[in-house]
Amino acid sequence: MAAYKWRVSQTVQPAINAATRLCAVLGAPIRHSASPAMHNAAFASLGLDWRYLAFEVDPKNLHAAIVGAKVMGFAGLNLTVPHKLLAVDLVDMLDESAKAWGAVNTIRFDVNGAIGFNTDADAIVTALREALAMELRGAKVLLLGAGGAGRTAALKLASEKVGELFIVNRTPSKAEDIANEVKKRFPSVKIVVGYPKANVDLILNATSLGLNSGDASPLDEKQFSLKQTHAVYDMIYRPAETRLLAAAKAAGCKTANGLGMLLHQGAKAFEIWTGKPAPLDVMRRALEQNIYGH
Ligand code: ATR
Questions:
Q1: Residue 103 C-alpha to ligand 1 middle, in angstroms?
Q2: Sequence spans of domains, the chain
């Protein structure tokens, strides 16, 4: 009985008090975010006196918000759309991960100030492997999107030595810029702007198209058929099934939404802030409940 009580006491989170450590996600919009559910479940499961909040912050106020969090003793922040590129110039120091991928999605505050990290890039690879059993080396990939998420994905996929990478974007010049950067940094990777002529192993959606009900699919099926890919991954996790994923399922593709990517970037951020191994199963369960409602 005593042992049972002890175990329970390890998982009871203290009520918010003057010593509670705080983390938060900043974005605009932010109401859709499942990060608070994931991180608060993780803090509670480890009995940590920590809480995770969400704030809608306009990009013009991002610097003030980061400085505010720093001077108020926050442990860390996550940044989401549209802040990840802006934050590169607003932190005091960049970790190697943020330097490599040119975007900051995680900040840790310590004696050195605000340190910027990128936990998104590794999460893409982990999520693709986990959800689709996808090994990227040598794979042919069609990437949709050339914004912040698309750029990080393109560079990371190239660093994983994909066989061929095709990028399609509404604004082609942004895809060209990314293709040029990939060519410079990863000269052995074949990268093409435009739809592939032959089959691919994976279509990866990194556009924001699908977030709103009524959004069209980011894939122009007149140019490339879903029959020509083995798998489709959508970085969007809410809605859990975008128009693209529904069509891909109907076409017989293996599919996955962005839950796994959110989970793995969050787990790494949790470890950066707390110095403790992330309770991955607890975090995954909290996301499933938040996103699927069961
Ligand atoms: P993130 O950080 O999530 O990548 P972003 O940098 O704003 O956000 O990029 C959004 C991506 O979705 C871009 O590829 C964008 O295309 P453009 O570069 O042409 O803007 C794409 N996107 C957004 N709305 C779109 C729409 N209505 N049709 C097609 N693509 C769209």
A1: 16
A2: 2-118+260-292, 121-257
pLDDT, residue 11, reads: 65
Q: How far is CA 12 from CA 48, 52, 286, in A?
A: 8, 16, 17
Per-residue tokens: 163: 């066989």
Q: Choose, from 84, 140, 156, 268, the residue flagged as catalytic.
A: 84
- The segments of the chain whose pLDDT lies below 70 read 1-11
Crossing angle between the packed helical segments 259-274 and 280-292, to the nearest 10 degrees: 140
Tokens 């839950």, located at residue: 259
Instruction: Give me the CATH topology for the region 2-118+260-292.
Output: Rossmann fold (3.40.50)
Residues with C-beta less than 6 Å from any ligand 1 atom:
81-82, 84, 145-150, 169-171, 174, 206-209
Cα 173 to averaged position of ligand 1 atoms, centre (Å): 13
What does R_g of the chain's alpha carbons equal in angstroms?
20
If one residue of 208, 223, 234 were mutated to test the ligand 1 pocket, choosing by the most ligand atoms within 8 A of its CB, it would be: 208
Which superfamily is assigned to 121-257 in CATH? NAD(P)-binding Rossmann-like Domain (3.40.50.720)
Nearest-atom number in ligand 1 for the CA of 151 is: 4
pLDDT at 6: 38
Residue 112 is predicted with a pLDDT of 94
Does the fold of domain 121-257 match that of domain 2-118+260-292? yes
Atom of ligand 1 minimally distant from the CA of 207 = 12
Cut 0.90: pTM above it: yes
Please report where in the chains the tokens 């939404």 appear, as a residue. 257
- Ligand 1, from 101, 105, 193, 207: best to mutate by most atoms within 8 Å of Cβ? 207
Please give the sequence-ordered ranges of beta strands (E in DSSP) within 106-215, or none if there are none.
106-110, 113-117, 140-144, 164-168, 190-193, 200-205
84 noted as active-site residue: yes
Tokens describing residue 157: 């996929």
